[in-house]
Amino acid sequence: MDITLSRYVLIITCSAGLVALSLGQSSMMGQKRHSAESGDHTEFSSGKYHDYIIVGAGPSGLQLGYFLQRAGRDYLILEKGDSAGTFYKTYPRHRKLISINKRYTGKTNKEYNMRHDWNSLLSDDETLRMTQYSEEFFPSADIYVQYLNDFARKLRLKIQHGVNVQRIWKTGNKKEGFYIRDQHGNVFTCRYLVVATGIWVPNEPDFVGKEHVTGYENMTLNLNFYRGKTVLILGKGNSAFETADYIQPVTNFVHLFSRSRVKLAWETHYVGDLRAINNGLIDTYQLKALDGVLYTDINNMQVIKHGDRFSVRLVNDTEHRGLHDNFAARSPYDVIIRALGFHFDASIFHRSIIPKLGEGEKKKYPAIKPNYESMNVEGLFFAGTNTHSLDFRKSAGGFIHGFRYTTRALHHLLEWRNHKIPWPSTALRTTQVMNTLLKRMNEASGLYQMYSVLGDIIIVNDTGAVYLEEVPVQLLPQLETATGHLAPNKVIVMVMEFGKNFSGPGTDPLRRGTATTVPKNAHLAGFLHPVLYYYSHLPTDDDMLRRPSKWILPRPTRLHHVIEDFLFDFSSPVSHVLHLRRFLDTVFGYDTRNYFAGSCFKMAMTHTSVPKTCQDQYLRGEGLTHASHCEASAVTQSTTK
Amino acid sequence: MASYCKAFVLICLVALLATCTLVASKEFGVVNTVPSAEFEDFIGSPSTLTAVYFYKRRLQRLKHFLESFDAAASFMKLYQVQFGRVNCDIDPVAAYCDKPDVDMSVFAFRNDRVEAKFALDTMYDRDAIASNIFQVLLSSEVPVLQSWIDLSHQQQRYMGDKDIIFSWQKAIGTYQHRVFMEFAFAYGSTYKFVFATNKKVAEEADLRDAKSVKEPAIWVLHCSEEEKTAKTCRQTRFQHSIVLADVLAFVRTLKTPYYVDMPINQEPTPYETMNLHLVYVATDNSNEHEAREVADKLGRALRGQAGVILLNVDTASEITLESLATDTERLREVPVVAVQLYGQESLDQNETAEKPMDTMHFMHHFSEGPLVEDLEVLLSEHRRSTERKKIIQDEDEGFDEPDFSAKLEKFFADFSAKGETFWGPSSDEEVQDDVVAEAVYRGRYAQLDLTYAPALTDKTFPAMLKEKSLLVVVFYLSWEPRSAAFLSSYSEASLDLKDEPSNSSPLARVACDDWPDVCQLNNVSSYPVTKVYRDGQYLKDYRGMLDTTALVNFVKLLQLPAPVELKTVEEVTNFREHVLSAGATDTAVLGLMGQEDQAEIETFTSAARELQGLFILGLVKDKALAQEVGSMYGSSVPGVVVVKRDDQYQPFKLFSGKIFHKPSLVKFIQLASLPVFPELTPKNFPSFFIQDKPFVILFGGRGEELESVGQIAAAEELPVVFCQMNMVSPASWEQTFSSSMCQMLVFLHWSWSSTRREECLSTLTPMTSQRTR
Fold first, then answer.
1. Closest CA relative to residue B375, chosen from B259, B274, B289, B278
2. Residue A625 is nearest to which of B438, B527, B546, comparing CB atoms?
C-alpha cells in the first residue's frame, strides 16, 4: 500500500493554518455581505472548530458520527432539537413505522439478519438493535426516538443539541472550510461538512384556496374531528394513504387526489411506493365502500369555501367544462388534508453555495455525485435521505435500511480522500475468491438492501485478489482515486439486481411463471439475484456515460447472473456454485476445481502443470484426503475429466 | 555406456509423456471390464452374442471409440447382446492379448467362438458398431442379396406365404442399416427381411423408382397374397427416408385391412392413429359392389400411404355425412372418390375449413387404373411440398437443433481431449465436475459424530477459550465442499482425541456462515482454516494435510511440552523409544547441551516452540549426560541429533551447523526428518516437492537393488530426491509409469527451464550408468 500512497501526490493544508487564514477572510466577507453576521467575529475565536461537522442528529447523522468516532476523527454533530431524532418525534404522524422489525429469521448470522431489520443502525454494540426494543413488526415511532437517543448515548457520540443552523457559508475559493451560524449567532467552523438534515420541509403547492387545506404536518390526530365527515386527501404516497387508513373508520368516505398513478411497492420493489400495510383505501375503493382515488393535477385545482364545506374545481378542465356534469369530485368536502411529501431545506446555505437540486421528480433532493458530494459545492457532502437522488425509485438509499450502508461508504470515501486511509480490503488467494463471493451473496446486507447501487469489487492481481465490500458501483471508473486501491487489470463487480423488465407500476409480479429455475436462463430472472460484471480493465468515465439504458454499469467483458433462488440461498452445488466457478475460472484462467490429494499427486507426476487448487493447497502440504469413502473413486473420476 | 543410459533416461521420459496423453481416457460406465479369470464364462454364455474389445494402453484417440462402444452397449442390451472390455495391460487374457494387433479390432463371440472381427476404423460411431453387430447377430436370418436372381428366388420361396421386406442399403455400418436390422430383429417372424448393398439388385428386379432413388430405400413385396405359382409379387415402396419412427408407422400399416366401411356413429377407423391419408370411396346402394372392388384395389395399391374407406351414402346417417363435409351434396354425386391428405389442415391453415372434406380433393372418374395413377401423383406432390416446408423450417431453426449443439459440444470435447492441458473447459454445463463437491454431495446424508468437536457461537467461543488451555478450532463454511470433506476427518479426529475423564477433546468448530462475526474477529478469510489457541491466546494455524491422522498427530504433539527436558539416560532412551513408537511422529529430535550453553539452549527451546505440533524435541541440559548420549550418535556437545524411525538407510542425522541459528536449525530439523529413500506417496510427495530437486524414482526394486540405491541416497552426494514406487501395489496411478523398459525414472520439475533440465540430466547420467550396470 506504500506504493499506492506514494502514487498520489497530495496537498494537505495544515488545519491550523486553514483556520487562521480563513478567519480573516470570513470576517471581511461577513461584514460586507451580512451585517447580521458581524457578531460572528467574537464567537469565532472561542474555538468551535472541528475537522468534521455533521448537521442533523437523525439516523444518518448518528450513523456517520459512529463511524467517525470509531476512526478517531474530530467531529461534532449539530442538532436543532434537544435530543436526537427530531423528525421522528413528529413523523410519521400516526406513529407507526413502516420499516419492518423482523426479529426471527431462523438464522444466527447477524449480518444476514440485518437484511430483515430495517430500522437499526450499524454498530458493534449488539444491544443497539431495534429488534431488542420492540416486539412489533411495525414498531412505534416513539420507540425509535428512544432507540436513536440510546444509540447516541451508549456510543458516546458527540452531539451539540439546540443548535438550529441558520446559515452555512464558505470562505473565498477554498476547497475546504465551512462556517456555520446557529440561531444564537454562534459560529462553528469545520474543514469537512456533511449535511444530514434529511428532507423535512413539507411540499405546499400553490393553488387558489390553499388556505383551506390542512397539512399532514399539523392535522389533528383526534378522530372525533373526522367523525361523520367527508375528507379529501391530496397525495398518493405513504403519508396520504396512512392518513386515509387512520381516519377511514370514522369518516363518511375518503377521496384521494393523485397527479400520477398510484405505485404499489410490491409491484415496483421500491419501499418508497405505497406499502401494502397502508393500502387499506385501495381495498375499500375496489370493494365499492365509498372511498376512492382520483387522478388530478393538483396545481390546476381551486378550493372554494361554501359555508363549512369546500368544493373543488379544476381550472383548465377541458374534460368537464360545460357539457359534462359528472365531475367525480363534485360533492363538497368537510376536510381537505395535504400530504404531498417533503423536500430538502436549501435555505440554510449562503447564496454563493446553494447546492444544486435534482431535476424533475428528484428536485426534492440536492443533486450529488456518486461520492455523495454536492454537484456544485466542492467539499460539501450529504448523508442519509437527502442522498436519494442517486437511486431514487431504484434502490433504498432514501431509507434507513439503505442509507446506513451508503453512509458507511461515504465514511470510507472520506477516510481515503481526507486521511489517505484506503478503503478496507481483504487479500484473498484465488481459490478463496469464490467462497468469499458465495458467502457474501448469502449473507451480505448492504448488497441486499442497496441493490444495484453498492457492489463488492474484486481487484484481481497476480497472487489472487483484493476484495472491497459495498463500494458505490457508479464510482467504478474512479475506483483508484476514490478508494486508494490500484486496479490496473481485471476487476469483478458483484451487485444484486432485480430483472430489468420484471416489475413496475401496473405489472403483476405474482403471475405464474415469473420464477426462473434453469441456470442457463439466469439472466432472465426477475427477482433479486447476484450479478457479476467482469472487466478486463477498469471502465472509463466515458464507458460509464455510454452504458446501455437501464444498465447500472457499462457492458462488461463477461457477465454472469447467478440464478435467482426462492430461499435466497446461493449455495446449491450445481445451479449456483458450479456455474459461478466456471465464470471465475474463465476470468482467472485457472482450474479451481477441488481435488483430493491422490488426484493432485497423480497429476503432479504425469502432467506439466497442476490445477490451481493442487498448487495452492496440496503442493503446500495442505492437501485434502477423505476420511472414509470417496478417495478411491475420486481418483478414477478425476482422470476422466 | 553413458550414452546408452542417457538414451534410456530419455526413453523413459518419452514414455512418460506418452502416458500422460492417455490419462485422460474415459472410464467406462456400461461396458464392464472382464477379469481374465471370467473371460471364458463371459464369452461362453449361451444364445447371446458377445462383443469384446481388448484394450491396450497404446492407441491414441481411443476416447471417441470407447464412448461409442459404451453407447452401443447400452443400446444393444435390448437385443441381448453383451459388451465387454478386457484390459490387456492390467489383467490380460493371454490367448488374445498376446496377439500384437488385438486392440485394432472388436471381436464378436458366439458360443465360445470368434464369430466376427471388425476393424476398429469401421467402428466409427454407435450406429456403425450396432449395425455391424446386428449383421452378425442376424446373419442367418437376413440374407444379403447379390443379384436380382437372388431376389426372385426369395420371392418364389415365400410366394403365398410371407411378405418380403427388401431394402437397398448403401453399406453396412450406417444408421439406415441399423434401423432396418432392428425391424428385422423385431418383425423377423412375420416378414422375410432381405437386403442388398448393390443397387442393381433393385433396379434389375424392376422395383418401383429403383433407378431414381438416391438414398437407401425399402420395398414390400406382397408375396403372401399371390398364388404359389406366381412369378413376381406386387410391390409397395416405402416412400420416406429411413427413420425409425417412419418405418415403424409404415410397418404397422401393413397389417391393416385394404379398406374398411365407414363406421357408423363416428367410431374411429383403424387408420385413425396411423398418420395416413384417407381415401373415401363414396357410393350408393346401386353401385356398391363395384365400389367395393375399387376400394379393395385402391387399398392394395396405396398400402402404407393411405387408408381406404368405403362410404355408402344411402346407408350412412346424415350425421356421418355432415361430419365429413359442409356441403354433403358433393358426396352424393356418386360414384366419387375423395381424398383427405394427412396434415393438410395444418399446412394450408385454411380457417374456413371446419370439416375434413372441405379440404378434400374429389375425383369423379371411377375406373381403377387412372384413379390409382392420379392418387399417386396427388400424394407424391403433397409429400414433396411437405418436405419442402420441413426443410425451410429446419433451416430456420438450424441453430436451435439439439443435435447441432450436441455435435458442437462433442467437437470441443474431442478438441480438449487432444490438447496438452489436463483440464480443458468441460463441455457439459450441468454436470458436476468437481470431485470433492461430488463426493460431498453423495455423502450429504451421512451423519457425522461431532459431539467432541462442538459448534461454537459468539457466546460459547470466548467461554471455551477461557476454559481450555489448548483449543483447536476449525472455521468453515457449511456448504463449501472442502470444508464439508474436512469435517468428516475432523469428526474422526475428535473421536480419536477424546479425553475420557473430561469427556471432551481439544477440538471445536465455528461455522462462518452462522457466525461471521466470530470468524471475522479471528481473521478468517479462507475456508476451512484450523487455528490453535493456547491459554486463551491465538498460537498458530494448522498448516498440514486435511486428513484425520495428520490432524490427530498434530494435536497430540501440541499436547506435549516443547521441549521435553531429559535428565537421565533412561529418560533419553524412553523419550526416543516412546516418541517413536507412539506413532504421532516418525522423528525424535535430541538437543545435547551443557548448562553453560545458554545461547544454544535458548535457540533450541525457541525452535522447539516454533515446531510444536510438527516435531517433538528433547533437551539435555547436563554436559556429562549430553556427552554420553552424543557418543552414541557421534555427536559433539552442544549438538542436535534427529533420530528417524522409518529410515533404514539413515537412522539418524547430526546437525552440522557450528552456530545455533534458529532458522537454520528449524530448516535442518524439517529436512533431516525426511527419509532419504522413501516410498513416494500422495502424503509425503509435497514435502519432497518443495525442495525443488529432481526426483529419481526406482520402480519395483527388490532387496539388493533397494539396498544399493538406498546407500547412494544416504550418502547425499547428489542434489536429487531418491524415492521408490512399489509396482506390486494395485494403485492405478502406478500403471502410468510401468513399463518393462523403464526401471528407474528421473522426474524433473515442470517449472524448470529446458536448460536447467538438461544440466540436471547430464549431472545424473554417470550415476544412472553406475546403477544400471
1. B278
2. B546
